[in-house]
UniProtKB/TrEMBL annotation:
Species of origin: Actinomadura fulvescens
SUPFAM superfamilies attached to this UniProt entry: Homeodomain-like
Source taxonomy: Bacteria, Bacillati, Actinomycetota, Actinomycetes, Streptosporangiales
Gene3D superfamilies listed in its UniProt record: Tetracycline Repressor, domain 2
Residue span, HTH tetR-type domain: 1-61
Protein name stated in the entry: TetR/AcrR family transcriptional regulator
Length: 193
């Protein structure tokens, strides 16, 4: 395993169990079995490391779904299940940042610097839904931005509830929850539903 992969694995585990604010690059390097200097050869700062942990070590939002592939329902269930898993796994990492206003400002600055942030998931999903609208698989009257915000918001809230009930190692969130959330939107999304 490469040093970069060891660093990402160590950072993901420590950040997930201790929170981002309590995690130091020194701890991550020690857990990865490398020097702090080597860590900084791969990542500019702790913020960049966190962004790569989120992108590469947390459950994906079911990969890229393209309009016209599979069914709208299948795609949305896969996206929602990925979002539920992602939010459940990242809550312990993010809770300490949200609780400290000065750290939240620094986090916002880092998200701008690295052109990332939670809004990208909603924007991407709205774009996917608009693409499905253009080819007639989503109702022309459905507001893709609102539908995307509703689904991602529901996934965020349900991921949080799963984390609160089950804890850091509470097991995987069931796909049936994603199905339930998506089915609540299908009457508005699907033509003729």
């Amino acid at each position: 395993m490469s040093a970069r992969a060891r660093i990402l694995d160590a950072a993901a585990e420590i950040m997930r169990t201790c929170g981002v604010t309590s995690t130091t690059t020194k701890e991550i390097a020690r857990a990865a079995g490398c020097s702090e200097a080597l860590l900084y050869k791969h990542f500019r700062d702790k913020e960049e490391l966190l962004i790569h942990v989120l992108k590469e070590r947390m459950p994906a939002f079911a990969g890229i779904r393209r309009p016209g592939e599979a069914t709208v329902e299948e795609n949305l269930v896969a996206i929602a299940h990925g979002a539920l898993r992602f939010y459940t796994r990242t809550f312990p990492m993010m809770a300490s940042m949200a609780a400290q206003p000065n750290l939240m400002v620094a986090t916002r600055d880092s998200m701008k610097k690295y052109e990332t942030g939670p809004h990208h998931a909603v924007e991407w999903l709205a774009g996917y839904l608009a693409g499905e609208q253009r080819i007639g698989r989503v109702s022309p009257g459905a507001d893709s931005q609102v539908m995307a915000a509703l689904l991602m918001g529901a996934c965020f809230q349900q991921g949080f509830l799963h984390y609160v009930r089950e804890g850091v190692d509470g097991g995987d969130i069931p796909e049936s929850l994603a199905v339930t959330l998506v089915h609540g939107l299908l009457p508005v999304l699907l033509p003729g539903a």
